[in-house]
Each structure stands twice: as C-alpha cells, then as structure tokens.
Amino acid sequence: MSTVVAQTEEPEFDLVEAALALCGGDAHATITALLDELRFVRGQLALSEAGMSVGFTRGWKPRFEIEGDT
C-alpha cells in the first residue's frame, strides 16, 4: 500500500516586508530597530569571543564583518 503525500506550495516569505510590518510600516523605525539588534548581536559575539578558548572552538574565531566583495 503506497501513501500519497500532497505537496502544497508555501508562499514566499519576504523578510523586508515582515520587518517593516513589525514597525508599523515606518522605514526609519525599522532601520533603527535593526541597527539596535545588530549592536546587541555584536556585543554578544564579543562576549563569546572573550569567553571561548581557541581549543574549545577548534580554531574557529568569530568575525564581526561579512567576508566578500563589498
């Protein structure tokens, strides 16, 4: 006996629209919120870098900037 699984197509999720919606459509408030979040995450990354030894992470070191051609 074979089971047929119906596949439904998920609608595309737009992260930009979702971020804007969280701030009531206000682009300035959205950018401010995202920059605040970035500042927080970078602070957490700095704390984790200070608290981890190289042996614990097997040589991995956190980066604060995106690598690539920007």
In the predicted model, the low-confidence regions spanning at least 5 consecutive residues are none
Largest β sheet strand count, sense and barrel closure:
none
Round the mean pLDDT to the nearest integer and report it: 81
Strand content: under 5%
Per DSSP E runs of 2 or more residues, the count of β-strands stands at 0
- The helix-and-strand class reads mainly alpha
Q: If you compute it from the alpha carbons, what radius of gyration comes out, rounded to the nearest whole angstrom?
A: 20 Å
Shape: flat
What's the helix-strand series? Answer: HHH
Fraction of residues in helices? 40-55%
Quote the distance from N terminus to C terminus.
55 Å
Total helical segments: 3
What do you see in this structure?
The structure is a single chain. With 70 residues, the protein is mainly α. The chain has a domain of 37 residues. The chain is built from 3 helices and no strands. The longest helix is centred in the middle third of the chain and has 25 residues. The radius of gyration is 20 Å and the shape is flat. It starts with 14 loop residues before the first helix and ends in a 13-residue tail after the last helix. The relative contact order is 0.07. The model has no long low-confidence stretch (mean pLDDT 81).
Give a short overview.
This protein is mainly α and 70 residues long.
Which properties best describe this structure?
single chain, 70 residues, mainly alpha, flat
How are the secondary structure elements laid out?
Blueprint: H1 15-22, H2 27-51, H3 54-57
